[in-house]
Design brief:
Layout: E1 2-7, H1 10-21, E2 26-30, E3 33-40, E4 43-49, E5 55-58, H2 71-74, E6 80-83, H3 86-98, E7 101-104, H4 110-122, E8 130-132, H5 140-148, H6 155-183, H7 197-213, E9 218-226, E10 231-235, H8 243-254, E11 258-271, H9 279-288, H10 293-305, H11 325-331, H12 338-345, H13 378-395, E12 399-410, E13 413-424, H14 428-431, E14 450-462, H15 471-480, H16 489-498, E15 502-503, E16 508-509, H17 511-523, H18 530-544, H19 550-570, H20 572-587, E17 588-591, E18 598-602, E19 609-612, E20 621-623, E21 629-636, E22 643-648, E23 655-658, H21 664-670, E24 671-674, E25 681-686, E26 692-696, E27 705-707, E28 715-720, E29 727-731, E30 734-737, H22 749-756
Parallel strand pairs: 1-4, 1-7, 7-8
Antiparallel strand pairs: 2-3, 3-4, 5-6, 9-10, 9-14, 10-13, 11-12, 11-14, 12-13, 15-16, 17-18, 18-19, 19-20, 21-22, 22-23, 24-25, 25-26, 26-27, 28-29, 29-30
Helix pairs in contact: 4-6, 6-18, 6-19, 6-20, 7-17, 9-15, 10-13, 17-20
């Protein structure tokens, strides 16, 4: 029996072939397309990979001219699918004719089902031959079981994905063209708008407005330290909103040297294990250890196709009963966490935690094979370790802590001291590197006894504005509001960055991002509200379970979009004016001191730069700061009169600098000493990626450079190293030679002696 297997990615094709052939598969080509062939007891196999969608959905060519048709006309315009890889499709067409069975082995989700179904249909395969292999991990047992129990393709799941594809294309094209044409931003400068992107951006703009409008309110707190252990107690009326009341309470407390214990309670608290990882939780936790969501998904996909973890796109937080948890642990005994694995495996009974979400398509994310840090490096190991430790935490016992609450009276003013001692580590033993635990001990005390007052402090502060979103917390909020899917949310955030709607790690909206949102709120017919997008998401889910049809959902979405498009088209002049004004503000840097024209950000084939609008009469131009987020200021340079920009770089305090990098005001700040090679000046510089280093001002004639620590302030000391003549700098509490290879560093007495001679 001859079988044709279609996979979504090349890695999956190789792994499936290796498993089913017991490592005896051979690679070859058919009509220019790569295939893998092998035989086993079930027959002869040809395995071919697609590399994603083989067909591309678009509008007919006559609609590609933005000026040739109104965006409103696109709402009900037809769509066409064009072949992206003709050689691959021809090979599938020919091989399917020779095969007794065509097996779709793409990722088992909506998108994977559509990729498989559209391919076999486009290839003209006999649909009676088409079967589906369903698996959640590329492990030997899962793959063998999937191919031994083939199912029918899920047409409803495929239809749900196709509905999303059509709706996303239509909404994106209509809205993007409408806004871009209204604001005169066409070609490479078009303004991207989308049904998920726009409400997501609104979350950031609304939060930014909350922060900017926030008015801090002063308050005061009174705290004390008691007894030999100097344990902390907080005044029960904290915070005080009136300074007079705080002063009076502090005065009364200072009148006594001892406090009276008025209550003392000790209890045990059970601290429950975290639920298993779904996609959102994995992205959030990975973001906390410095792996952005987009990178997390790329790494997770690679770990999956390499057989190290289960399918990383899932909303399930409950392990299925069919999953052998002990079997998974056995596979991890040779991993870099073997001791921890053996401890969890040694439990008499393993009962996993579970979350609130339960689906049947894929299990939660769990490790499927062993790996060690010497073979798996960098962020890939960090993510793999996170997934393993989360898995262990879900199988370990709950933790237990001793909680102490102690009430203390100071001359009528009451304080509460809280103690926390972890008594049983439980799951925290395996997940401790991702959580913060601070133990506080309170001695055993009896009600009515007295305790010494060691110190009393009154601190003044102000209420803080809401926190800004980071990528992890934004993905959580998108999940809560049903904006996008587990597979697309990180891409949506990426688009906000690429279109310059947001900047920085804390997603600060730019003037254009703010203007876009506020204009669409007024003229966009509700497209910035999560409810409209959530309704469409719910409709697509109903397609997959048979409650709605593809055509009905697409038609309803088109009718919704038509109302929006008509409104934007009718109010385009006002909308366009608001966005153009914001663009000018975003590109405006300041006034040219030479000709009094505006200086703004310009585009060129070599990248953006700051130039004078008086060009060509005034040719002043300066590079943008490398690898930095910039914010405009009203300040001008005291030395040369040029505008100053605020630059923000990760790991360094913000700086306000003249836009001319060669201005004395900048070179004096960046100067850290004399170059030992040529007598020039060593200065702090930045690479294109924003990484700082020290280099000679005499470049390219002098190529002397030094790597620098990635974070912290670097201050010149005007001293030279006695061993290598390189500058000595101060970095916080450390004073050191800037030369990482200085013979005076480390245990090198012979080198030091030689250098002194």
């Amino acid at each position: 029996m001859r079988k044709l297997v279609i996979t979504e990615k090349a890695n999956a094709a190789r792994r499936i072939s290796t498993i089913l052939s017991d490592g005896k598969a051979k690679a070859g080509t058919v009509g220019g397309a790569g295939i893998i062939s092998f035989s086993n007891a079930d027959g002869e196999y040809d395995v071919i990979s697609l590399r994603g969608h083989i067909l591309e959905l678009d509008y007919p060519e006559e609609y590609n001219d933005w000026s040739g048709s109104s965006p409103v006309e696109l709402v009900y315009a037809p769509h066409v699918k064009t072949v992206r890889a003709k050689n691959t499709l021809d090979a599938i067409h020919n091989l399917s004719k020779e095969s007794d069975e065509v097996i779709i082995a793409t990722d088992y989700d909506r998108e994977g089902e559509l990729i498989g179904m559209e391919t076999v249909r486009a290839a003209g395969a006999d649909m009676k031959k088409v079967k589906r292999a369903k698996f959640s991990a590329l492990t030997k047992s899962e793959v063998e079981n999937a191919f031994a129990t083939l199912a029918e393709p899920d047409v409803r799941l495929s239809d749900a994905a196709e509905a999303r594809q059509i709706i996303d294309l239509t909404w994106g094209a209509v809205l993007t063209r409408s806004v871009s044409l209204s604001s005169g931003q066409v070609g490479k400068n078009f303004l991207s708008v989308g049904r998920v992107q726009s409400p997501t951006l609104k979350l950031l703009v609304d939060r930014n407005e909350e922060i900017e409008k926030f008015i801090p309110v002063p308050y005061w707190t009174i705290n004390a330290k008691f007894g030999i252990l100097a344990f902390k107690g907080e005044h029960n009326d904290n915070p005080f909103w009136e300074k007079e009341k705080a002063d009076e309470a502090l005065r009364k407390c200072k009148e006594v040297k001892k406090g009276t214990i008025i209550s003392y309670d000790v209890s045990m608290k059970e601290e429950y294990r975290p639920p298993p990882f779904d996609t959102t939780a994995m992205q959030v936790e990975a973001n906390k250890i410095g792996i952005p969501p987009a990178v997390t998904m790329k790494l997770a996909e690679d770990l999956y196709t390499s057989g190290y973890i289960s399918y990383p796109r899932t909303e399930n937080t409950e392990y299925p009963k069919s999953l052998s948890l002990r079997g998974v642990l056995e596979k991890l005994k040779d991993s870099g966490l073997s001791e921890e694995v053996k401890e969890v495996l040694a439990q008499q009974q393993i009962i996993p935690s579970r979350g609130k979400r339960r689906t049947t398509d894929h299990p939660p994310i769990y490790p499927t094979a062993s790996a060690t840090p010497d073979k798996m490096k960098g962020d890939k190991w960090k993510l793999y370790e996170l997934i393993v430790r989360r898995f262990l935490a879900t199988l370990a016992p709950n933790a237990e802590a001793e909680i102490t609450k102690c009430g203390i009276d100071l001359n009528g003013e009451q304080f509460t001291a809280s103690g926390y001692i972890l008594k049983k580590e439980g799951w925290k033993k395996y997940y401790s590197k991702y959580i913060t635990m601070t133990e506080t001990q309170i001695p055993k005390l009896t009600v009515g006894s007295e305790v010494d007052v060691r110190s009393l402090t009154q601190d003044g502060s102000q209420t803080k504005p809401p926190f800004r979103y980071n990528q992890g917390s934004l993905i959580q909020e998108m999940d809560r509001l049903n904006l996008g899917t587990k597979s697309t949310r990180h891409d949506i955030i990426g688009k906000l960055f690429s279109r310059n709607y947001v900047q920085g790690n804390y997603l600060i909206p730019t003037p254009v991002g703010i203007a876009m949102t506020r204009s669409l709120e007024k003229h966009g017919g509700g497209i910035t509200e999560p409810a409209m997008t959530a309704k469409l998401e719910d409709d697509m889910l109903k397609i997959s379970v048979g409650e709605r049809t593809l055509n009905a959902v697409v038609e309803e979405s088109q009718n919704m979009l038509h109302i929006v498009a008509e409104k934007i088209n009718g109010e385009g002049t006002e909308l366009g004016g608001e966005i153009r004004s914001a663009l000018r503000e975003q590109q405006h840097i300041g006034i040219c001191p030479a000709c009094k024209n505006t200086m703004s950000i310009k585009r060129s084939k070599n990248g953006n730069f700051i130039g004078c609008d008086g060009y060509p009469e005034c040719a002043r131009a300066y590079p943008l700061p490398r690898g930095a987020m910039i914010q405009t200021t009203e300040e001008t340079c005291d030395v040369c009169g040029l505008p100053k920009l605020k630059t923000i770089r990760k790991g360094s305090p913000p700086q306000t600098l003249c836009i001319d990098p060669k201005c004395e005001s900048n070179t004096s700040k960046s100067d850290i000493g004399e170059c030992p090679s040529c007598g020039g000046r060593i200065r702090v510089m930045y690479s294109k990626a924003g990484k700082r280093f020290a280099g000679c001002s005499g470049w390219p004639q002098c190529d002397r450079t030094y790597p620098l620590r990635p974070t912290g302030t670097i201050t010149a000391t005007d001293d030279k190293c006695e061993y290598c003549d390189s500058p000595i700098v101060s970095t916080g509490n450390r004073t050191e030679c800037i030369n990482m290879e200085c013979p005076g560093k480390g245990d090198a007495p012979k080198k030091r002696a030689s250098a002194k001679k």
